[in-house]
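In response to the reviewer comment on reproducibility (Comment 2.3), we provide here a single inverse folding case reported in full, input and output, so that an independent group could reproduce the run without further information from us. The C-alpha cells appear first.
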C-alpha cells in the first residue's frame, strides 16, 4: 500500500507525468538525452503517445497535441505555465551547454552569479524547465 505523510496512508502512487507536445518522439528523445532512460512507443496509436522510462523507475509520457500553445515565461495572467520540471545538476554550466545543444532555448538564465541556484529554459516544445544546482 502506498505510504503518505507519517500517520496517513496515501490514496495512490504517481504513475507518470504526461506532457502535451506537437512531436512526442522528438520531445521524448530530448528528455532521454537530458535524463537518460529508454524511449518506448507501443506502435498502436501512430506516435500520439510516447513513454520515457527513466532510471530509477519514474516515467514521463509525451502526448501529441498538434496545435499546442506553449506556456509563456513568466506569465501569471494567461497562458502561464501549468507545470515545469526542476532538474538537479552537478555542473550547471556544463548542463546548460548540453541542453542548448539538444534544442532547449534560454528563458531566464541570469542566476545572479550562482546565488539564485537555478536557470530557466524552454524544451523544444516550449515547456519551461529549470536546471537547479544540486
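Designed residues, in position order:
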Amino acid at each position: 500500500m502506498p505510504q503518505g505523510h507519517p500517520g496517513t496512508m496515501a490514496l495512490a502512487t504517481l504513475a507518470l507525468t504526461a506532457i502535451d507536445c506537437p512531436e512526442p518522439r522528438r520531445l521524448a528523445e530530448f528528455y532521454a538525452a537530458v535524463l537518460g532512460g529508454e524511449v518506448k512507443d507501443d506502435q498502436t496509436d501512430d506516435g500520439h503517445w510516447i513513454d520515457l522510462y527513466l532510471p530509477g523507475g519514474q516515467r514521463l509520457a509525451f502526448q501529441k497535441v498538434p496545435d499546442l500553445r506553449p506556456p509563456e515565461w513568466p506569465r501569471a495572467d494567461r497562458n502561464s505555465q501549468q507545470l515545469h520540471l526542476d532538474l538537479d545538476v552537478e555542473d550547471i554550466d556544463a548542463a546548460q551547454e548540453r541542453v542548448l545543444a539538444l534544442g532547449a532555448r534560454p528563458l531566464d538564465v541570469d542566476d545572479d552569479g550562482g546565488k539564485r541556484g537555478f536557470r530557466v529554459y524552454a524544451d523544444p516544445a516550449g515547456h519551461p524547465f529549470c536546471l537547479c544546482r544540486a
